[in-house]
Design goal:
125 residues; mainly alpha; 5 helices
Length: 125
């Protein structure tokens, strides 16, 4: 018997995978969607230089921020009908805040409707 084989014949990896699958099965879809959106928002905020800490400016990367904000906008737009306005509203507010922060941080101004994610949200002002 290998060191990874359990007494019931299964491996530790199989048990971990099964436990993880059971755990994720118990999480409502709206929570998974919201969590994924918050991760995208957090990453975009860091790339906009909005992170706490002395190295926030060093972490700034507007090209990466644009990609994350656009992905977030598409994600929220697609998810909104499924999760309802109660959950989508705060996500949209966060997205709009990031879009405005991008506009403020960028030295080259996008035309209205051409900013990150605006093809999904419409112009943000």
């Amino acid at each position: 018997m290998s060191s990874f084989e359990q007494t019931d014949g299964s491996t530790a990896q199989e048990n971990i995978s099964t436990d993880h699958t059971r755990d994720i099965a118990e999480v409502p879809a709206v929570e998974v969607i919201s969590t994924a959106a918050v991760h995208l928002m957090s990453a975009a905020a860091v790339k906009l230089g909005l992170a706490d800490g002395p190295d926030a400016e060093e972490l700034k990367d507007l090209d990466e921020a644009r990609k994350l904000i656009t992905a977030l906008a598409g994600f929220i737009t697609a998810a909104a009908p499924e999760i309802g306005s109660q959950h989508a509203g705060p996500l949209r507010d966060g997205l709009r805040t990031l879009q405005l922060a991008f506009r403020e941080a960028s030295s080259i101004k996008d035309e209205p409707g051409k900013g990150p994610g605006e093809k999904f949200t419409g112009p943000v002002s």
